[in-house]
Amino acid sequence: MPAKKTASRAALSLEPALGWTYLSRDALARAKAQMDDESTGVRDEIGFLTIHQRYSDLFFPGTSVLHTRARYALFVPWLFEDLAGVTGPAARRALQERERLLAGRLRNRPGEDEPERRGTIGALKYPKPSSQPPSTVYWNALAAWGILRQRHDQRTVSRAQAHRLLSNARSASDDDGQPLVTSEPPFIPLPKRPVNWLAGEITHRMEKGEAEFLRDCLSQLRPQRRPELSLLARLAQTKAPPPDTMWADEVFAIAQTDRAALGRARQAASLAGIGRAIYDALVEQMIEAKDKAGGSRRHHDHLVDMVAKHGSTAVKTDLAGLADDTGGLPPRLEAVVQETRSWILAGSSDPGSLLDVYRAAEARKGARARLAATPNGRARRLEWATDQHVLADVLHYRWSQVHALLSDIANAA
Protein backbone atom coordinates (compact mmCIF):
# COMPACT_ATOMS: atom_id res chain seq x y z
CA MET A 1 0.00 0.00 0.00
CA PRO A 2 1.50 3.43 -0.91
CA ALA A 3 2.52 5.88 1.78
CA LYS A 4 -0.12 8.29 3.01
CA LYS A 5 0.91 10.88 5.56
CA THR A 6 4.12 8.95 6.07
CA ALA A 7 4.64 10.13 9.60
CA SER A 8 1.24 8.92 10.68
CA ARG A 9 1.64 5.49 9.10
CA ALA A 10 5.20 4.70 10.13
CA ALA A 11 5.73 1.09 11.04
CA LEU A 12 5.30 0.24 14.66
CA SER A 13 8.15 -1.16 16.66
CA LEU A 14 6.82 -3.61 19.21
CA GLU A 15 9.31 -5.09 21.63
CA PRO A 16 8.92 -8.86 22.12
CA ALA A 17 6.84 -9.44 25.22
CA LEU A 18 4.80 -12.08 26.92
CA GLY A 19 1.14 -11.23 27.27
CA TRP A 20 -2.40 -12.40 27.01
CA THR A 21 -4.08 -12.86 23.67
CA TYR A 22 -7.64 -13.41 22.47
CA LEU A 23 -7.11 -17.14 21.88
CA SER A 24 -9.83 -18.25 24.29
CA ARG A 25 -12.37 -20.95 23.51
CA ASP A 26 -14.83 -18.20 22.60
CA ALA A 27 -12.30 -16.67 20.23
CA LEU A 28 -11.65 -19.98 18.54
CA ALA A 29 -15.39 -20.53 18.20
CA ARG A 30 -15.73 -17.10 16.64
CA ALA A 31 -12.91 -17.84 14.21
CA LYS A 32 -14.61 -21.07 13.16
CA ALA A 33 -17.93 -19.27 12.75
CA GLN A 34 -16.25 -16.64 10.63
CA MET A 35 -14.83 -19.26 8.31
CA ASP A 36 -18.26 -20.87 8.11
CA ASP A 37 -19.98 -17.55 7.47
CA GLU A 38 -17.55 -16.75 4.67
CA SER A 39 -19.29 -19.55 2.81
CA THR A 40 -22.74 -18.02 3.22
CA GLY A 41 -24.17 -18.01 -0.30
CA VAL A 42 -20.95 -19.62 -1.56
CA ARG A 43 -21.21 -23.27 -0.51
CA ASP A 44 -17.83 -24.90 -0.71
CA GLU A 45 -18.36 -28.63 -1.09
CA ILE A 46 -16.12 -28.76 -4.17
CA GLY A 47 -13.78 -25.81 -3.53
CA PHE A 48 -15.32 -22.98 -5.53
CA LEU A 49 -14.80 -20.73 -2.51
CA THR A 50 -11.14 -20.52 -3.57
CA ILE A 51 -12.18 -18.66 -6.72
CA HIS A 52 -14.58 -16.50 -4.74
CA GLN A 53 -12.01 -15.48 -2.13
CA ARG A 54 -9.15 -14.81 -4.48
CA TYR A 55 -11.10 -12.61 -6.86
CA SER A 56 -12.74 -10.84 -3.90
CA ASP A 57 -9.34 -10.12 -2.36
CA LEU A 58 -8.01 -8.96 -5.72
CA PHE A 59 -10.82 -6.49 -6.38
CA PHE A 60 -11.87 -5.56 -2.84
CA PRO A 61 -8.95 -5.86 -0.38
CA GLY A 62 -9.86 -6.09 3.29
CA THR A 63 -13.54 -6.84 2.73
CA SER A 64 -15.46 -9.76 4.21
CA VAL A 65 -18.93 -11.20 3.84
CA LEU A 66 -19.36 -10.37 7.54
CA HIS A 67 -19.12 -6.62 6.91
CA THR A 68 -22.30 -4.62 7.21
CA ARG A 69 -21.91 -0.83 7.51
CA ALA A 70 -19.01 1.52 6.79
CA ARG A 71 -19.10 3.42 10.07
CA TYR A 72 -17.85 0.38 11.97
CA ALA A 73 -14.43 1.20 10.49
CA LEU A 74 -14.52 4.22 12.84
CA PHE A 75 -16.59 2.77 15.66
CA VAL A 76 -13.96 0.11 16.38
CA PRO A 77 -10.89 2.36 16.71
CA TRP A 78 -12.93 4.91 18.68
CA LEU A 79 -13.92 2.18 21.14
CA PHE A 80 -10.28 1.16 21.54
CA GLU A 81 -9.18 4.75 22.10
CA ASP A 82 -11.89 5.17 24.71
CA LEU A 83 -10.28 2.32 26.65
CA ALA A 84 -6.72 3.70 26.48
CA GLY A 85 -5.01 2.85 29.75
CA VAL A 86 -6.81 -0.48 30.17
CA THR A 87 -4.99 -3.70 29.26
CA GLY A 88 -5.19 -7.42 29.83
CA PRO A 89 -8.41 -9.27 30.61
CA ALA A 90 -9.97 -6.04 31.89
CA ALA A 91 -9.60 -4.50 28.42
CA ARG A 92 -11.21 -7.49 26.81
CA ARG A 93 -14.19 -7.38 29.17
CA ALA A 94 -14.57 -3.62 28.82
CA LEU A 95 -14.46 -3.82 25.02
CA GLN A 96 -17.09 -6.56 24.97
CA GLU A 97 -19.38 -4.44 27.12
CA ARG A 98 -18.86 -1.31 25.03
CA GLU A 99 -19.64 -3.24 21.85
CA ARG A 100 -22.72 -4.73 23.46
CA LEU A 101 -23.98 -1.29 24.48
CA LEU A 102 -23.26 0.09 21.01
CA ALA A 103 -25.38 -2.67 19.46
CA GLY A 104 -28.24 -1.70 21.75
CA ARG A 105 -27.96 1.99 20.92
CA LEU A 106 -27.89 1.32 17.18
CA ARG A 107 -30.74 -1.17 17.41
CA ASN A 108 -33.13 0.70 19.66
CA ARG A 109 -33.14 4.24 18.31
CA PRO A 110 -36.73 5.53 18.60
CA GLY A 111 -38.30 6.26 15.23
CA GLU A 112 -35.30 4.81 13.38
CA ASP A 113 -36.06 3.65 9.86
CA GLU A 114 -35.37 -0.02 9.22
CA PRO A 115 -32.68 0.74 6.58
CA GLU A 116 -30.76 2.72 9.18
CA ARG A 117 -30.91 -0.12 11.74
CA ARG A 118 -30.03 -2.77 9.19
CA GLY A 119 -26.53 -4.10 9.52
CA THR A 120 -26.22 -3.62 13.27
CA ILE A 121 -23.79 -6.27 14.48
CA GLY A 122 -25.12 -8.03 17.56
CA ALA A 123 -28.70 -6.75 17.13
CA LEU A 124 -30.23 -10.21 17.10
CA LYS A 125 -28.44 -11.35 20.27
CA TYR A 126 -28.81 -8.11 22.23
CA PRO A 127 -28.79 -7.68 25.23
CA LYS A 128 -26.31 -10.58 25.14
CA PRO A 129 -22.90 -9.83 23.58
CA SER A 130 -22.29 -10.84 19.98
CA SER A 131 -20.19 -13.94 19.31
CA GLN A 132 -18.61 -12.01 16.44
CA PRO A 133 -18.37 -8.38 17.57
CA PRO A 134 -17.31 -5.48 15.32
CA SER A 135 -13.72 -5.58 16.58
CA THR A 136 -13.42 -9.15 15.28
CA VAL A 137 -15.29 -8.59 12.03
CA TYR A 138 -13.48 -5.38 11.02
CA TRP A 139 -9.97 -5.86 12.45
CA ASN A 140 -8.35 -7.18 9.27
CA ALA A 141 -10.11 -4.49 7.26
CA LEU A 142 -8.67 -1.78 9.50
CA ALA A 143 -5.20 -3.13 8.76
CA ALA A 144 -5.79 -3.56 5.02
CA TRP A 145 -7.28 -0.08 4.70
CA GLY A 146 -4.40 1.59 6.53
CA ILE A 147 -6.40 2.70 9.57
CA LEU A 148 -4.55 0.25 11.83
CA ARG A 149 -0.80 0.67 11.49
CA GLN A 150 1.38 -2.32 10.70
CA ARG A 151 4.07 -3.65 12.98
CA HIS A 152 7.70 -3.28 11.97
CA ASP A 153 7.63 -6.88 10.69
CA GLN A 154 4.59 -6.08 8.48
CA ARG A 155 2.31 -8.27 10.58
CA THR A 156 -1.04 -6.99 11.80
CA VAL A 157 -1.14 -5.54 15.31
CA SER A 158 -3.34 -7.75 17.48
CA ARG A 159 -6.13 -6.35 19.59
CA ALA A 160 -4.17 -7.09 22.77
CA GLN A 161 -1.17 -5.22 21.35
CA ALA A 162 -3.40 -2.31 20.38
CA HIS A 163 -4.62 -2.03 23.98
CA ARG A 164 -1.02 -2.03 25.22
CA LEU A 165 0.09 0.59 22.70
CA LEU A 166 -2.76 2.87 23.67
CA SER A 167 -1.95 2.35 27.33
CA ASN A 168 1.74 3.19 26.72
CA ALA A 169 0.80 6.36 24.89
CA ARG A 170 -0.87 7.66 28.07
CA SER A 171 1.46 6.15 30.62
CA ALA A 172 3.70 9.08 31.53
CA SER A 173 4.57 12.69 30.71
CA ASP A 174 7.54 14.93 31.42
CA ASP A 175 7.41 18.21 33.35
CA ASP A 176 6.12 20.01 30.27
CA GLY A 177 3.31 17.52 29.80
CA GLN A 178 5.00 15.81 26.86
CA PRO A 179 4.67 11.99 26.65
CA LEU A 180 7.74 10.03 27.66
CA VAL A 181 6.79 7.03 25.52
CA THR A 182 7.74 7.47 21.87
CA SER A 183 5.91 4.51 20.30
CA GLU A 184 3.12 5.56 17.99
CA PRO A 185 -0.50 4.68 18.72
CA PRO A 186 -1.95 1.76 16.76
CA PHE A 187 -4.38 3.86 14.70
CA ILE A 188 -3.70 6.75 12.36
CA PRO A 189 -5.31 10.09 13.32
CA LEU A 190 -9.07 9.59 13.13
CA PRO A 191 -11.93 11.97 12.45
CA LYS A 192 -13.38 13.63 15.52
CA ARG A 193 -16.15 11.71 17.21
CA PRO A 194 -19.75 12.83 16.83
CA VAL A 195 -21.12 14.84 19.76
CA ASN A 196 -23.38 11.94 20.71
CA TRP A 197 -20.65 9.32 20.67
CA LEU A 198 -20.65 8.60 24.39
CA ALA A 199 -24.34 9.19 25.10
CA GLY A 200 -27.56 9.77 23.21
CA GLU A 201 -28.70 8.54 19.84
CA ILE A 202 -26.17 7.07 17.46
CA THR A 203 -26.70 5.87 13.89
CA HIS A 204 -24.89 4.15 11.04
CA ARG A 205 -25.12 7.30 8.91
CA MET A 206 -21.67 8.79 8.47
CA GLU A 207 -20.85 12.47 8.76
CA LYS A 208 -19.13 14.18 5.84
CA GLY A 209 -15.71 14.30 7.47
CA GLU A 210 -15.89 10.64 8.38
CA ALA A 211 -16.85 9.67 4.83
CA GLU A 212 -14.02 11.74 3.36
CA PHE A 213 -11.56 10.08 5.72
CA LEU A 214 -12.66 6.56 4.79
CA ARG A 215 -12.84 7.39 1.07
CA ASP A 216 -9.28 8.70 1.27
CA CYS A 217 -8.15 5.41 2.86
CA LEU A 218 -9.94 3.24 0.32
CA SER A 219 -8.79 5.33 -2.64
CA GLN A 220 -5.21 4.17 -2.10
CA LEU A 221 -5.90 0.45 -1.78
CA ARG A 222 -3.78 -1.95 -3.75
CA PRO A 223 -4.07 -5.75 -3.74
CA GLN A 224 -1.24 -7.65 -2.12
CA ARG A 225 1.79 -8.02 -4.36
CA ARG A 226 0.28 -5.84 -7.10
CA PRO A 227 1.24 -2.23 -7.88
CA GLU A 228 -2.03 -1.17 -9.50
CA LEU A 229 -4.89 0.42 -7.61
CA SER A 230 -7.64 -2.02 -6.71
CA LEU A 231 -11.12 -1.91 -8.19
CA LEU A 232 -12.41 -0.84 -4.76
CA ALA A 233 -10.02 2.14 -4.81
CA ARG A 234 -11.26 3.23 -8.23
CA LEU A 235 -14.89 2.87 -7.17
CA ALA A 236 -14.23 4.95 -4.04
CA GLN A 237 -12.56 7.67 -6.10
CA THR A 238 -15.69 8.23 -8.18
CA LYS A 239 -17.55 9.54 -5.10
CA ALA A 240 -20.76 8.28 -6.72
CA PRO A 241 -23.19 5.70 -5.32
CA PRO A 242 -22.22 2.26 -6.67
CA PRO A 243 -24.32 0.55 -9.36
CA ASP A 244 -26.60 -2.27 -8.30
CA THR A 245 -24.57 -4.95 -10.04
CA MET A 246 -20.86 -5.65 -10.14
CA TRP A 247 -21.16 -6.28 -13.87
CA ALA A 248 -22.57 -2.85 -14.72
CA ASP A 249 -20.98 -0.92 -17.59
CA GLU A 250 -19.87 1.77 -15.11
CA VAL A 251 -17.78 -0.76 -13.20
CA PHE A 252 -16.06 -2.05 -16.33
CA ALA A 253 -15.47 1.54 -17.47
CA ILE A 254 -13.43 2.44 -14.39
CA ALA A 255 -11.77 -0.97 -13.89
CA GLN A 256 -8.83 -0.04 -16.15
CA THR A 257 -6.06 -2.58 -15.45
CA ASP A 258 -8.62 -4.90 -13.82
CA ARG A 259 -11.01 -4.85 -16.76
CA ALA A 260 -9.86 -8.14 -18.27
CA ALA A 261 -9.75 -9.84 -14.87
CA LEU A 262 -13.23 -8.53 -14.13
CA GLY A 263 -14.52 -10.18 -17.29
CA ARG A 264 -12.83 -13.45 -16.36
CA ALA A 265 -14.28 -13.23 -12.86
CA ARG A 266 -17.76 -12.92 -14.34
CA GLN A 267 -17.19 -16.00 -16.46
CA ALA A 268 -15.82 -17.94 -13.48
CA ALA A 269 -18.76 -16.84 -11.33
CA SER A 270 -21.17 -18.33 -13.87
CA LEU A 271 -19.18 -21.52 -14.27
CA ALA A 272 -18.92 -22.00 -10.49
CA GLY A 273 -22.66 -21.38 -10.14
CA ILE A 274 -23.37 -24.11 -12.66
CA GLY A 275 -20.81 -26.34 -10.92
CA ARG A 276 -22.60 -25.91 -7.61
CA ALA A 277 -25.88 -26.80 -9.32
CA ILE A 278 -24.22 -29.90 -10.81
CA TYR A 279 -23.09 -30.97 -7.35
CA ASP A 280 -26.63 -30.61 -5.98
CA ALA A 281 -28.05 -32.58 -8.89
CA LEU A 282 -25.48 -35.34 -8.35
CA VAL A 283 -26.44 -35.64 -4.68
CA GLU A 284 -30.10 -35.72 -5.68
CA GLN A 285 -29.38 -38.47 -8.21
CA MET A 286 -27.51 -40.57 -5.67
CA ILE A 287 -30.31 -40.23 -3.12
CA GLU A 288 -32.74 -41.59 -5.68
CA ALA A 289 -30.62 -44.19 -7.50
CA LYS A 290 -28.29 -45.46 -4.79
CA ASP A 291 -30.10 -44.72 -1.52
CA LYS A 292 -33.61 -45.43 -2.86
CA ALA A 293 -34.88 -42.54 -0.77
CA GLY A 294 -35.62 -39.71 -3.17
CA GLY A 295 -37.69 -38.93 -6.20
CA SER A 296 -37.26 -35.16 -6.35
CA ARG A 297 -35.89 -33.47 -9.48
CA ARG A 298 -35.79 -30.00 -7.96
CA HIS A 299 -32.04 -29.55 -8.27
CA HIS A 300 -31.84 -31.22 -11.70
CA ASP A 301 -34.48 -28.80 -12.98
CA HIS A 302 -32.56 -25.91 -11.42
CA LEU A 303 -29.40 -27.10 -13.16
CA VAL A 304 -31.20 -26.91 -16.49
CA ASP A 305 -32.24 -23.34 -15.67
CA MET A 306 -28.71 -22.38 -14.57
CA VAL A 307 -27.19 -23.68 -17.80
CA ALA A 308 -29.79 -21.83 -19.86
CA LYS A 309 -29.15 -18.59 -17.97
CA HIS A 310 -25.39 -18.69 -17.40
CA GLY A 311 -23.99 -21.33 -19.76
CA SER A 312 -23.07 -18.95 -22.59
CA THR A 313 -20.96 -16.91 -20.15
CA ALA A 314 -19.49 -19.91 -18.34
CA VAL A 315 -18.12 -21.58 -21.47
CA LYS A 316 -16.06 -18.47 -22.22
CA THR A 317 -14.04 -19.01 -19.05
CA ASP A 318 -10.37 -18.41 -19.84
CA LEU A 319 -8.70 -21.18 -17.86
CA ALA A 320 -5.18 -19.79 -18.26
CA GLY A 321 -6.31 -16.30 -17.32
CA LEU A 322 -8.23 -17.67 -14.34
CA ALA A 323 -5.08 -19.38 -13.12
CA ASP A 324 -3.09 -16.15 -13.50
CA ASP A 325 -5.70 -14.09 -11.64
CA THR A 326 -6.05 -16.51 -8.74
CA GLY A 327 -2.45 -17.70 -8.44
CA GLY A 328 -3.45 -21.16 -9.63
CA LEU A 329 -6.16 -23.50 -8.41
CA PRO A 330 -5.80 -26.73 -6.43
CA PRO A 331 -5.42 -29.61 -8.93
CA ARG A 332 -8.76 -31.27 -8.12
CA LEU A 333 -10.65 -27.97 -8.39
CA GLU A 334 -8.85 -27.22 -11.65
CA ALA A 335 -10.02 -30.59 -12.99
CA VAL A 336 -13.60 -29.80 -11.95
CA VAL A 337 -13.46 -26.42 -13.70
CA GLN A 338 -12.08 -27.95 -16.90
CA GLU A 339 -14.54 -30.86 -16.98
CA THR A 340 -17.51 -28.63 -16.13
CA ARG A 341 -16.66 -26.25 -18.96
CA SER A 342 -16.35 -29.17 -21.38
CA TRP A 343 -19.66 -30.62 -20.14
CA ILE A 344 -21.45 -27.33 -20.84
CA LEU A 345 -19.81 -26.98 -24.26
CA ALA A 346 -20.97 -30.49 -25.18
CA GLY A 347 -24.57 -29.53 -24.44
CA SER A 348 -24.95 -32.31 -21.88
CA SER A 349 -27.96 -32.48 -19.61
CA ASP A 350 -27.09 -35.47 -17.40
CA PRO A 351 -24.45 -34.57 -14.77
CA GLY A 352 -23.73 -38.25 -14.07
CA SER A 353 -20.63 -38.21 -16.29
CA LEU A 354 -19.05 -35.70 -13.88
CA LEU A 355 -19.56 -37.80 -10.75
CA ASP A 356 -15.98 -39.09 -10.53
CA VAL A 357 -14.29 -35.69 -10.85
CA TYR A 358 -16.71 -34.06 -8.41
CA ARG A 359 -16.38 -36.95 -5.97
CA ALA A 360 -12.58 -36.64 -6.09
CA ALA A 361 -12.78 -32.91 -5.36
CA GLU A 362 -15.17 -33.40 -2.45
CA ALA A 363 -12.99 -36.11 -0.93
CA ARG A 364 -11.04 -33.39 0.91
CA LYS A 365 -14.03 -33.17 3.27
CA GLY A 366 -13.44 -36.70 4.50
CA ALA A 367 -16.37 -38.17 6.45
CA ARG A 368 -18.52 -35.14 5.56
CA ALA A 369 -18.42 -35.86 1.80
CA ARG A 370 -21.90 -36.56 0.41
CA LEU A 371 -20.85 -38.04 -2.93
CA ALA A 372 -18.76 -40.77 -1.33
CA ALA A 373 -19.93 -44.33 -1.98
CA THR A 374 -19.60 -45.17 1.72
CA PRO A 375 -21.95 -45.49 4.71
CA ASN A 376 -20.82 -42.03 5.83
CA GLY A 377 -21.65 -40.63 2.41
CA ARG A 378 -25.13 -42.15 2.55
CA ALA A 379 -25.71 -40.74 6.03
CA ARG A 380 -24.67 -37.26 4.88
CA ARG A 381 -26.95 -37.46 1.84
CA LEU A 382 -29.95 -38.49 3.91
CA GLU A 383 -29.34 -35.48 6.16
CA TRP A 384 -29.35 -33.20 3.15
CA ALA A 385 -33.14 -32.60 2.80
CA THR A 386 -33.25 -31.95 -0.95
CA ASP A 387 -36.54 -30.00 -0.84
CA GLN A 388 -35.16 -27.55 1.72
CA HIS A 389 -31.61 -27.21 0.40
CA VAL A 390 -30.95 -23.71 -0.99
CA LEU A 391 -30.70 -23.63 -4.77
CA ALA A 392 -27.25 -22.96 -6.22
CA ASP A 393 -26.32 -19.52 -7.52
CA VAL A 394 -23.34 -17.79 -9.10
CA LEU A 395 -20.47 -16.37 -7.05
CA HIS A 396 -21.03 -12.85 -5.71
CA TYR A 397 -17.48 -11.73 -4.79
CA ARG A 398 -18.77 -9.80 -1.73
CA TRP A 399 -20.47 -7.23 -3.97
CA SER A 400 -23.37 -6.69 -1.57
CA GLN A 401 -20.90 -5.78 1.19
CA VAL A 402 -18.92 -3.49 -1.13
CA HIS A 403 -22.16 -1.91 -2.32
CA ALA A 404 -23.21 -1.17 1.28
CA LEU A 405 -19.77 0.24 2.13
CA LEU A 406 -19.63 2.60 -0.84
CA SER A 407 -23.29 3.60 -0.45
CA ASP A 408 -22.69 4.62 3.17
CA ILE A 409 -19.76 6.80 2.11
CA ALA A 410 -21.65 8.36 -0.81
CA ASN A 411 -24.75 9.06 1.29
CA ALA A 412 -22.96 10.67 4.24
CA ALA A 413 -25.00 13.38 5.97
Major beta sheet, specifics?
none
Low-confidence stretches: 1-42
Shape: globular
Topology order in helix (H) and strand (E) letters:
HHHHHHHHHHHHHHHHHH
Q: Count the helices. How many?
A: 18
Describe this structure in words.
This protein has 413 residues and is mainly α. The protein folds into 2 domains: 47-258 and 400-410, no CATH class; 260-382, no CATH class. It has 18 helices and no strands. The two termini are 29 Å apart.
In short:
The chain is mostly helical and 413 residues long. 50% of the residues lie in helices and 0% in strands.
List the helices and strands and how they pair.
Elements: H1 25-37, H2 49-59, H3 72-82, H4 88-107, H5 114-117, H6 134-137, H7 139-144, H8 159-169, H9 208-218, H10 231-238, H11 249-255, H12 259-289, H13 298-314, H14 319-326, H15 331-345, H16 355-362, H17 375-382, H18 399-410
Helix pairs in contact: 2-12, 12-13, 12-15, 15-16
Can you tag this structure with a few keywords?
413 residues, 2 domains, 0% strand, globular
